[in-house]
Amino acid sequence: MRDLTALYKLLDSVVSLFDKLLAVETEKLDAIAVNDVEKLDEYMLSEQALTMELRSLDAKREKEQSVLGFENFTLNSIIQAVDGDSPDDAAKLKDLMETLEQKTDELTVAVACTRKFIELHLQSIDFVLAKMGEQREKEGSYQSSGEKSEQDSRPTQFTPRKV
């Protein structure tokens, strides 16, 4: 019989980390809603640190699985493998797997929501920039001395170009 305690602890840590990522994602959404770019940057840095920690935990999980003889097994495969020997271990792993799936789904929805919110803000910025370009074309521009400049033929919007 294998001792799966270390694997349980690692999976619990992953669940806890997903909770932290979800909280950061919620804070990012709040920062975007109030146009707080500095807070958003701070949350992005926190998210990057948590992502690095998640990668570290995943490497530890892979190592622990290898030690237990479950190298390259999915969590579902491990559950099936231990079910005959220890139904209690299988039940606990199944609960952890369901929790991980739930947290993953919640995080996926939160990330999609944040991404959509950012896209909407970028569209509003594009709209304002386009309006400013139209206004500039109507009024012309001024030199540093305060005199009105001649109309230039430069485009007022960015155009995509491949390099």
In words, what does this structure look like?
With 163 residues, this protein is mainly alpha-helical. 75% of the residues lie in helices and 0% in strands. It has one domain (5-137). The mean pLDDT is 86.
Envelope shape:
rod-shaped
Strand elements, count: 0
What's the number of domains?
1
Strand fraction equals under 5%
Calculate Rg over CA atoms: 26 Å
Identify low-pLDDT runs.
none
- Give the % helix: over 70%
Mean pLDDT: 86
Output the helix-strand order.
HHHH
Structural class: mainly alpha
Q: What distance lies between the first and last C-alpha atoms, to the nearest angstrom?
A: 60 Å
Count of runs of 4 or more consecutive helical residues: 4
What can be said about the biggest beta sheet?
none
Quick overview of this protein structure:
The chain has 163 residues and is mostly helical. The chain is built from four helices and no strands.
Notable characteristics:
single chain; 163 residues; mainly alpha
Annotate the secondary structure layout.
Layout: H1 5-33, H2 37-68, H3 75-83, H4 87-139
Helix pairs in contact: 1-2, 1-4, 3-4
